[in-house]
Batch of 2 targets.
Target 1
Amino acid sequence: MFGSRRRRERAALLQAGFPAEWSEWCDRWFPWIGALDGDQRLRWERRTHEMVLDTSWEPARGFEITDEMAVTVAAQAQLLVLGLPDGALGAVRAVVLHPTTIVVEGEHSQVDGVVSDDPTPILGEAVEHGPLLFAWDEVLHDVEHPEEGRNVVLHECAHVLDAADGVYDGTPPITDPELADDWVRACTEAYHAVVEGSDPGVVDPYGGVNPAEFMAVATEAYFCEPHALHRAHPALSDVLGRYYGLDPRRWSGA
Ligand SMILES: [Zn+2]
């Protein structure tokens, strides 16, 4: 009974359309919305709406998650996958929001499998089969300062896409064999440039930690500094564009 009532309520909310106050909020913060065509905007609104309704939003103790916070996370997550099929972020069932940077104490396993017991500051985290975790102040900082070229929501959601085939290895499932070959070639070349320090600084040096982190920071660069990335790594920019099905140079200043 409870389940079917919830389903009816969810359907009614989706039927009512993307709430006007969410639209106003997003239009104020996300300049890329104006560059979406009609179909893209409708798809983005539907998927953002579904993600807000279907995700378990879990506040850290003493924190309260507002609609604006959930919409801010979902809106950016759904921009990232706008050119991918429905359900690309279906593995994300829950999002934990902390008010500010989390310091993890005690034994802690990182994406590359290294276990550390040093206190580690965490701005965001993607755990396989677990919730996404973000520091809200970092999410907001990235929205307010796109010129800094960082975006923790895009970063963690890129990890989710990467791990859709079960491994964090910097290569998401790609069905087109030509794109898969080009992806490996372009990413390997740019990854080595970052590891060797010969990258001109567009891709965050943190990407040199391992291929999974490389994919996450390259994704941030592709969406936040698309012109600079295209100049520095045209082949990398090309495979990211073919994979994500979006060209952020359309809405970014040079
Ligand atoms: Zn990462």
Note: Residues 20 and 194 are 43 Å apart (CA to CA).
Target 2
Amino acid sequence: MSTARRCAVVTGGARGIGEAITRELLARGTDVVVADWNATAIDEFRPPADQDGGRVTLVRADVSQEADWFRVLEVARSTYGPVTVLVNNAAISPKRDGRRTPTSEMSLDEWHSVLAVNLTGAFLGSKLVHADMSAAGWGRIVNISSQAARTGARVAGVHYGATKAALLGLTRTLAFEYGPDGITVNAVTPGRIMTPMAAGVADEVNQAMQRDIPVGRLGTPEDTAAVVGFLVSDQAGFVNGATVDANGGSWMG
Ligand SMILES: NC(=O)c1ccc[n+]([C@@H]2O[C@H](COP(=O)([O-])OP(=O)(O)OC[C@H]3O[C@@H](n4cnc5c(N)ncnc54)[C@H](O)[C@@H]3O)[C@@H](O)[C@H]2O)c1
């Protein structure tokens, strides 16, 4: 299931699930531009030693800002060539003392900030890579949604749950629109995955979630990255508009 030498953009790719996706694509020989707003995560990212893998460039950028997207894509094109793989992974899930903000107390600013990153970011990226992908007659877009899109968010706030469900609508609509150009658009809905985002809540919350997972463990970032690796491969060309539930069996559609 190789992915030929191609250029990918992975948002939020310096940490957590995004970092594992970056490493998965590099191992498959894909060149990767990481767009992440966390300067510390960028500084701490250590490229793999594998000489046969892809090359990586990390750019500090906020995916909710169109100007930042222009900068990221300029770096990608001038360094590696046209962008034919996009993974919209960056997201935020604001908490107060490890708990969701009650909807009745949520400010409009907090609501807008989550929509801007989790949903508008994916819209902007998907819009701006279309020219490269359609010119190549080949493209792969993967949107990292969440099990919260299926079940409602149990730990995160209403903004997070709403954006993750909206990403599934964005995925299916783009799958119709971009499919004729040779571009597939799919979503992954991870269950509970141990990352800095998931560590933002009390241990008891994660322990309770683990009890509900038939495979008996929380997920790892690599569990999600492996699904993305398949979806961006040549072999996945007939998978389009799909949502892949990767949650250890805690939700089965
Ligand atoms: N961890 C889980 O249990 C879980 C479950 C389901 C879905 N997800 C989804 O997986 C994805 C990754 O989650 P994670 O747990 O690795 O989160 P994380 O917080 O550990 O990492 C997110 C990364 O995105 C970056 N980021 C955030 N906002 C950004 C912005 N505006 N511009 C650029 N980069 C930005 C962060 O700097 C960070 O590197 C998210 O879409 C999340 O909703 C996570």
Note: The first strand starts at residue 7 and ends at 11.
